[in-house]
Amino acid sequence: MAETAQTPAKAQPAKTRKTRAEVLAARDKAIEKSKQIIGRPRDFTPELGEYIVQRIRNGAHYSQLVKEKLVTNYNNLALWKEQEPAFKEAVERAQEERAELWADQLIEIADDPLLDPNDRRIRVETRWKVIGSLLYRRYGVKQQVDINQRIDVGSTAAEVLMRLTTQAREAKQLAAPQIIDVTPTKD
Fold this sequence. Notes:
Blueprint: H1 20-34, H2 46-57, H3 62-67, H4 74-83, H5 85-111, H6 117-134, H7 136-139, H8 157-175
Helix pairs in contact: 2-5, 4-5, 5-6
């Protein structure tokens, strides 16, 4: 007789990460189970939610999740986030971590000698804009507008509006970048 090793009752098995195939199988099983329930089928499972969050954290964006058939469409993901507050919070944290990952990748992209300089510039600028919008407190461009306007009580609202419009136009003209032609001329 072969003896089997028994684990102590208090010991818990090590938590293993599920593969994409296992997550999709669990999703398909949940879809089949939900067909028995009256009403709209709900194909969200906690395992699928964890896998989606893991993919986002590792740099995936929503269109990749749809291509991988983890999510049927963007509306489903929005519905899941609305119905599952814990999933919504996990996705938001994963998006912040993804933005941090992209911020780290900026240096690698900028220093990559194999990429065309124009390609590097486009990749860096695109990621920087997305990072700035997701993590605006840390990486966003601080924009500050100071408006100091003295309004004469005796003037009409139309006069004040005209004066403000004129000042705004002048400010835009001053803020516009000056273009200087540096093309060499033949003398």
